[in-house]
Amino acid sequence: MAYTISDDCIMCGACADNCPCEAISEGDGKYEINADACVDCGSCAEVCPVGAPQEG
């Protein structure tokens, strides 16, 4: 199941910069993950300083 980004997101962009499939984009107040493009690799969660990306 694809990752999601919680409301803890601080909009630093680390997750989007690290996503190998470009599934993460800026949303309204936090980043959002396109579930259809996410390959569930966990790269976003590894680099997030606040742990916002979470397994869906």
TrEMBL record:
GO CC field: cytoplasm
Gene3D superfamilies: 3.30.70.20
Cofactors, names only: [4Fe-4S] cluster
InterPro entries from the UniProt entry: 4Fe4S_Fe-S-bd (IPR017896), 4Fe4S_Fe_S_CS (IPR017900), 7Fe_ferredoxin (IPR000813), PSI_iron-sulfur_center (IPR050157)
4Fe-4S ferredoxin-type domain mapped to chain residues: 1-28, 29-56
Assigned keywords, A-Z: 4Fe-4S, Electron transport, Iron, Iron-sulfur, Metal-binding, Transport
Gene Ontology MF term list: 4 iron, 4 sulfur cluster binding; electron transfer activity; metal ion binding
Known role: Ferredoxins are iron-sulfur proteins that transfer electrons in a wide variety of metabolic reactions.
Stated name of the protein: Ferredoxin
Species assigned in the record: Ruminococcus bromii
